[in-house]
Amino acid sequence: MPRKLGVCSWSLQPKSPADLVEKVKSCGLRFVQLALDPIRRGEWDVNDTKRALDAANIEILSGMMELAGEDYSSLETIAKTGGVLPDATWNANLAAAAENAQIAKRLGIGFLTFHAGVIPHGRRDPKRIVVLDRVRAIVDAFAAAGVAIALETGQESGPAMMEALLELSRPSVGVNFDPANMILYGQGEPLPSFECFLYKIKQIHLKDAKWTQQKGTWGVEVPDGTGDVHWSRLLERIVETGLDCHLLIEREAGANRVADIRFARRLAEYKLNDLVV
Predict the structure, then answer these.
(1) Model confidence over 197-229: pLDDT tens digits?
(2) Which of 164, 201, 229, 230 is the most core-located residue (most Cβ within 10 A)?
(3) How far apart are the C-alpha atoms of 173 and 166, rounded to whole Å?
(4) pTM for the whole thing?
(5) CB burial class (10 A; 0-12, 13-18, 19+) of residue 261?
(6) What is d(CA 115, CA 89) in angstroms, rounded to the nearest whole number?
(7) Across residues 12-31, what is the average pLDDT?
(8) DSSP letter for each residue of 166-208
(9) Domains (ranges, CATH) in the chain?
(10) Which of 226, 166, 233 is nearest to 194 (CA)?
């Protein structure tokens, strides 16, 4: 499978499908990972979205689902509110998964990513059992519509996430490897995690970050190639291992996102000369 390079739709903060098309083209790209929740909430029309992207020859490589109630103001708040564990948002999140699965099916999307949240480490921890049961429920809801799932990395170390995936007992579930998230959440160097995840990586987010200078606080997201992700070596390992997944540029901070994404595109193209852009 040729590796395709695209951009995460939410990185461009589009106001409409037409706005998304314009911004993707401005980045010099024609592949996207599409956030499905604006469609689910009725902010975008699914048919208008498909028509706009098809007319512009922009291909959707994957979808993304956000979970309700997540508070990213600190590492502590996201640990409490993120993912599938909070009871207050679980029913809404499961219902959203079922709706997003049908949207993905209508758009011809066969692959989607989401954050499961912090997975308690104790094998007998009741909260761990709840998290894994709820992840299974979401995975199964999408599987019924023919959509595969990859879990976003970052809130767990590589070994902890791999242990959870084995316990999950859903062999088709993989990971969306985000090297910057490993740094932002303080979960270890990205390269060893890449090696740990290797045979479960279904997609990669190209994003960069710097380590925090104060323990217990967020790292800082920065433009690709300017942070603490060892980009040259990571891209080399993608080639050396023959990993055949797509790469999506994600930029969730900064005021010059199109320029930052264009820079990230050139960085990836320099190292991965077989990329389809």
Answers:
(1) 999 999 999 999 999 999 999 999 999 999 999
(2) 229
(3) 10
(4) 0.95
(5) buried
(6) 14
(7) 98
(8) HHHT-TT-EEEE-HHHHHHTT---HHHHHHHHGGGEEEEEE-E
(9) 5-271 (3.20.20.150)
(10) 233
